[in-house]
Each structure stands twice: as structure tokens, then as C-alpha cells.
Design goal:
The structure is a single chain. The protein contains seven helices and eleven strands. By secondary structure, it is α+β, with helices and mostly antiparallel strands. It is elongated and about 105 Å long.
Length: 251
């Protein structure tokens, strides 16, 4: 069962580049929010998991549908208090409220408390973009860029990394890790999730078995050994009975 899940996790759209970013620690970048106060990303991820993505307000392409999809998917989850969504702009000319509108919020319908919008400060912008694998290029006064959604753990490590618009399987995997549900296979080395069958080690590029595998295989193994023991006992009893009958016949 777990081996099949391992295979399926690769066949069902898991981006191979994800392995380059798992467990990488992001820099504690600073950004400014709508009230102009400077914040560190660690002020959020040190308290609870952070869903982090980057966009920019003048984006004529993917940023709007991308942030709308994130908003819609999170609204379906219904566990918003368990994590913080942080949307940061890499464009120094942006204002946080420009990002609001891209995500479908406005003054009459402001973002909920578990959403934070900000503009990255220049001194930490480049290092954060590099650590997340976000690539930008200025073309005709606008940025061409990819999209990255990262789940950041309490120590600043990337626990999940998704490039492009997430698919259904990727959202499912992401939300299960956010809500600590049982997942047969984890694509990250998350030592706090002891119920996973396998853990991935990005340093060696290998998978190793975890306690979750024993939880699945344990009952089957116990049943197998019980059957072997019962068969052995039955065989011994049958041998003794046959021996007794043979002795009686000889007498």
C-alpha cells in the first residue's frame, strides 16, 4: 500500500524541483504592511505555519487568478486559525492594498486576520526570492515571473514547495500537513509527523521508512505470525494423535 502511494506521489504531478527546496531555511526577510510597520516573516512562522507566496500589484497575468485560487481553496478548508497566509510583493513600487485587490479583497471586504499582505524591503528581497526559487525578469517595464507557494515551518524551513497553480492532489497534501491529518507518504522530512510511512531526506535524496509503515503492516504481520503459530500447534497435535493411534495399533 505504501509503496504504491510512493509511486503515485511522483506520477500524480509532484514537481521534481520540489526536492531542491525542501527543508531549506528561508531568510528572515522584512516587509512593510499597509500601516507602514516593518515586520519579519519570523514573527508569523515562529507562532504557526505560514503559507507564503509572492506576487506584485501591477501584474497583468497570473497573479490575480493565482491569488484568487489560493483564497478559494483556503476558504474551503475551514481551519484558518491554524496557519497564516503571507502574500509579499517583490516590486518596490507596490502598496499592500494592491495585493488585496488581486486576492479579491477591498475596503468593504478586507482580508481576514489570518491574511497578511506586505512589500518586501530591498535588503532582504533578493535572498528570499532565491531561497524560494522565484525567478523574475523585467520585460517592457513589467515582471515576468513564476509562481511559488511554500509552507514554512516554525523554524523557517520549507516543508512543502509548489510551483505553478496547485492541483487538487497538491492542495490535498498541503492541507493534510497543515491540519496534521494522517498521510501515508510525506514528501518532506517532518519529524513531528510520526504517522507517515516514509520520510524524504533531501540531503541524500533517499526515502526511509517511518513509524506509519509499522502501523499499517503491524496488524498484518501479527495476524500472519498467529496463523503460523496456530498451524504449528495444530500440526503438533495431529502428529501426537497419529503417534498415539500407531502405538495403540501396535499393542
Amino acid at each position: 500500500m505504501c509503496w504504491a502511494a510512493v509511486l503515485l506521489s511522483f506520477l500524480l504531478g509532484q514537481n521534481p524541483n520540489e526536492m531542491d527546496y525542501l527543508l531549506r531555511k528561508i531568510p528572515d526577510a522584512t516587509f512593510k504592511t499597509s500601516d507602514s510597520s516593518a515586520m519579519h516573516i519570523s514573527s508569523w512562522y515562529s507562532k504557526k505555519p505560514v503559507l507564503l507566496t509572492l506576487a506584485y500589484g501591477r501584474c497583468p497575468g497570473v497573479c490575480n487568478p493565482y491569488l484568487l485560487q489560493i483564497r478559494d481553496q483556503i476558504s474551503l478548508l475551514g481551519s484558518e486559525k491554524q496557519f497564516q497566509v503571507v502574500v509579499l510583493s517583490f516590486d518596490a513600487e507596490d502598496q499592500p492594498k494592491q495585493l488585496w485587490r488581486l486576492a479579491g479583497f477591498n475596503e468593504n471586504s478586507p482580508p481576514p486576520a489570518n491574511w497578511t499582505f506586505g512589500v518586501l524591503e530591498e535588503d532582504t528581497r533578493a535572498s528570499l526570492l532565491t531561497s524560494l526559487g522565484l525567478k523574475t525578469q523585467m520585460v517592457g517595464g513589467l515582471y515576468e515571473h513564476n509562481t511559488v507557494l511554500a509552507l514554512i515551518g516554525e523554524d523557517g524551513s520549507i516543508l512543502q514547495w509548489i510551483e505553478g497553480l496547485p492541483g487538487t492532489a497538491q492542495w490535498d497534501r498541503l492541507f493534510k500537513e497543515l491540519t496534521s491529518e494522517f498521510v501515508p507518504v510525506y514528501s518532506t522530512l517532518n519529524n513531528t509527523v510520526w504517522t507517515s510511512c516514509f520520510q524524504y531526506d533531501p540531503a541524500s535524496g533517499t526515502w526511509r521508512m517511518s513509524w506509519g509503515l509499522l502501523m499499517i503492516l503491524g496488524p498484518a504481520l501479527i495476524t500472519f505470525f498467529i496463523i503460523i503459530i496456530l498451524q504449528s500447534i495444530t500440526r503438533n497435535d495431529r502428529t501426537k494423535n497419529n503417534s498415539s493411534i500407531l502405538i495403540q495399533n501396535q499393542l
